[in-house]
Design brief:
The protein has 321 residues and is of the alpha/beta class. It contains ten helices and twelve strands. It has two domains: 237 residues, 3-Layer(aba) Sandwich (Rossmann fold); 69 residues, no CATH class. The strands form two sheets. Strands 6-7-8-3-9-10-12-11 form an eight-stranded mixed beta sheet, sandwiched between helices. Bound molecules: adenosine-5'-triphosphate and magnesium ion (MG).
Length: 321
């Protein structure tokens, strides 16, 4: 069974600090081949930072601790050569800001060609044929001609699709997609999501999907991690998380989610803001914003098992249904 296979990626107590302030505060999770893990949470909760740290893409100012095992090999502290071998080929990332991922000095086709040569060993005419196939699959019209275009000649949404084509070009075992469809119109978004699912079915690629779009996460993901103030406050199967959220923060997030079959309504913001640095309380980081606060919330919280495959960082989760 898929669940009994060893994880492809195991993250254990990952911490990221800048200037002595921890922004990611002990991330622990694992992903198996073929699985899709959703990451949700308000802006600034450490979603992007966590995965940039996993890939070794943060500069020297970031102090990183903990362990990230890819098929049992440690990535934290690995030398540049080892990381470069893994990136693109074994793990690829679609960045939240696609413009930074593309080289403005080279045509988009050149850049995808390069990934195919480097990570797939393609040579000769087969390279450009495959590049055009990938551009076509992400919905870039007239790919033979468009392959010669530069990033600044394309729209933001087209650049995002090129970045997705480039990430898929190396046939990675794990794709980290940070808001991959935010700049896309609904038709193209649906096309990209179908493509990602197809690739997963064909190759068993695992995926981390970071998104503010909870409907998308519920549709695409097997598991969901809810991040708040740099830590996971709830981790569960998507089904359990959306049907029976155990953490008050998750409940507040879902309360702002438009009903899938109901009328569209604006997101309801949660009162207050995410604590950082000096403001971080010793107990539950959500306590000051929680409608169900009691004295026990002011003490450090532990992860409680709500059900198999469902944990929450809240003392109440023990008695949650
Ligand atoms: N290079 C950096 N130096 C210092 N602080 C940083 C750096 N990058 C991010 N941060 C801080 O770390 C916190 C987490 O940032 P991150 O980008 O991971 O948020 P996020 O959850 O991805 O938010 P969003 O949903 O807006 O993308 C934020 O408070 C941010 O200001
Ligand atoms: Mg982000």
């Amino acid at each position: 069974m898929r669940d009994s296979a060893p994880p492809l990626l195991s993250v254990n107590n990952l911490r990221v600090a800048f200037g002595g302030v921890e922004r990611v505060r002990g991330l622990t999770l694992s992903i198996r081949a073929g699985q899709t893990l959703g990451i949700v949470g308000e802006s600034g909760c450490g979603k992007s930072l966590s995965w940039l740290a996993v890939l070794g893409l943060l500069g020297d100012a970031a102090k990183i601790r903990g362990s990230v095992l890819l098929d049992g090999s440690e990535m934290i502290g690995a030398n540049r050569q080892t990381l470069e071998r893994m990136r693109g080929r074994r793990i690829a990332m679609v960045f939240q800001d696609p413009s930074g991922a593309l080289n403005p000095m080279r045509s988009i086709g050149w850049q995808i060609d390069e990934v195919l040569r480097l990570h797939r060993g393609l040579r000769g005419a087969a390279v450009r044929v495959e590049t055009c196939r990938l551009l076509d699959r992400v919905g870039i019209p007239d790919p033979v001609r468009r392959a010669n275009a530069y990033a600044d000649e394309l729209s933001g949404g087209q650049n995002q699709r090129v970045a997705i084509a480039m990430a898929l070009a190396g046939r990675p075992e794990l794709l980290i997609a940070d808001e991959p469809t935010t700049a896309l119109d609904p038709t193209i978004q649906a096309q990209i999501l179908t493509l990602l699912k197809d690739v997963q079915r064909e190759s068993g690629m695992a995926m981390v999907l970071i998104s503010h779009d909870l409907s998308l996460v519920s549709e695409m993901c097997d598991m969901v991690a809810v991040m708040y103030a740099g830590e996971i406050v709830e981790l569960a199967s998507a089904r359990a998380l959306f049907a029976a959220p155990a953490h008050p923060y998750t409940r507040a997030l879902l309360a702002g989610m438009p009903m899938l079959d109901g009328p569209r309504r604006p997101m309801v913001a949660i009162r207050g803001s995410v604590p950082h640095g000096q403001d971080m309380p010793p107990g539950c980081a959500f306590a000051a914003r929680c409608d169900t606060f009691v004295a026990a919330c002011a003490r450090p919280q532990g992860m409680h098992t709500v059900a198999p495959d469902h944990v929450a960082l809240c003392h109440r989760a023990r008695i949650a249904t």
